[in-house]
Amino acid sequence: MGIEIKVPTLGESVTEATVSRWLKAVGDHIGKDENLAELETDKVTLDVSSPVSGKVISLAVAEGETVLANAILAEIEEGAGQAPSAPTPAATPSASDAPAPVASPSVVASPPPAPRSSDAGSAAPLSPAVRRIVDENNLDPASITGTGKDGRLTKGDVLAAGTVPKVAPTPTAPLAPRSEDPREERVPMSRLRQVIARRLKEAQNTAAMLTTFNEVDMSAVMALRGEYKDSFEKRHGVKLGFMSFFVHAVIEALKDYPAVNAEIHGNDIIYKNYYNIGVAVGTPQGLVVPVLRDADSMSFAETEASINSYGEKARQGKLSMADMSDGTFTISNGGIYGSMLSTPILNPPQSGILGMHNIQKRAVVVSGKDGDQIVIKPMMYLALSYDHRIIDGREAVSFLVRVKQSLEDPRRLLIGL
Question: How many domains does the chain have?
Fold first, then answer.
């Protein structure tokens, strides 16, 4: 019997992951703390390392399969050498003669498949989503035929049983076959990309989403940043960027309009008296949103340092679940890619998201002692998408005006106005 390697704790609200890649095959030697596999969740990619040095004697699942938290991934015989020809009591002859292909792991420790019958619902473990539906509706899983892998019940099986109201749209017909073109490349969507697509669509289907716009004159922020950026970097070891101004301007606006920092939970509204600001970061794998916890207690330097640290971790794929949990409001900066205007999509269960855009010099009319004048100003469009179910239009517009005021006169942020 080898040492079991299990799926690590995946984080709050995350119950399953996909084995995206095995880094070792059956029969391979693995060192202590050496990576064995990569897991992909709906938020991050996790490395699974070996706690001991030894030989891989079995892999419980194949690449691309979904596993639950704490499930067995593999077994390792501690202290075994690198030579795959030396059989061990725990390994089968085929596993000792030649390494098993990565996509076809050993099933030494795997139980026989559950029968695809009417009692499959009780014989096979239920996923968290299926278990929740079964428990909430007092259903007998043994009375429902499972159509999933090894006879497991799927959410569709439970919904199709006729005892639970269907909350999802009727499944569409299978995709019609399409001809292949040698100039095209077909690749499977990563788990992260699939979940991004699902969550964005759920946000559109669930929330009464609306977007309101305003524009802000960035002259004061740019002047302040230009005056102090060198001394700021020298003292704090981090560059003074625009994002810290926006984070603190948003926090002041959230204090005045708490509904924008709230969420709907059933028939209740949960008002959050803390400010965990998510900052959307684009990576080669997709969009992730690390969270600045208790951002209202951070200085500008701490805000900039945290954003830079998260950005570097995101690019390296090293963000943890804790880094992206418990956000109350999100800021997305499409301006770094040149976007002039967009309508950001909510990050459920949050009720608001602010979109920043490109700063462009434009001719604007300003009023002064000498009357109206046309001057050139560095302007930025702001977009606030919000859940109209709990945020009224007046609140949304007023929130955005409050952000605009703080940015056009950043001294207000220093004295809490």
Answer: 3
> Which entry of 29, 150, 296, 388 is annotated as an active-site residue?
388
Rounded CA separation 35/14 (Å): 22
Residues 93 and 135 in one domain: no
| Tokens matching residue 238 | 């981090």
- In this structure, the answer to whether residues 29 and 67 fall within a common structural domain is yes
Are 278 and 138 contained in the same domain? Answer: no
Residue 326 known to be catalytic:
no
Residue 358 shares a structural domain with residue 393: yes
Q: Mean pLDDT across the chain, nearest whole number?
A: 80
Structure-token pair, residue 347: 């990050």
112 domain-assigned: no
Nearest to 148 by CA among 172, 126, 176, 174: 126
Distance CA 398, CA 375 (A): 26
**Which tens digit of pLDDT belongs to each residue from 68-84?**
878 888 888 887 665 44
pTM across the whole model: 0.62
Q: Please tell me which residue in 230, 256, 392, 409 is annotated as part of the active site.
A: 392
Q: Which helix (H) or strand (E) holds 215?
A: strand 209-217
Residues 140 and 59 in one domain: no
For residue 63, give both structure tokens: 């690449």
User: C-alpha distances in angstroms, 300 versus 33, 58, 134, 239, 245?
Assistant: 37, 51, 49, 10, 8
Q: Does any domain span residue 234?
A: yes
Q: Is 103 a member of any domain?
A: no
Give yes or no: 388 in active site. Answer: yes
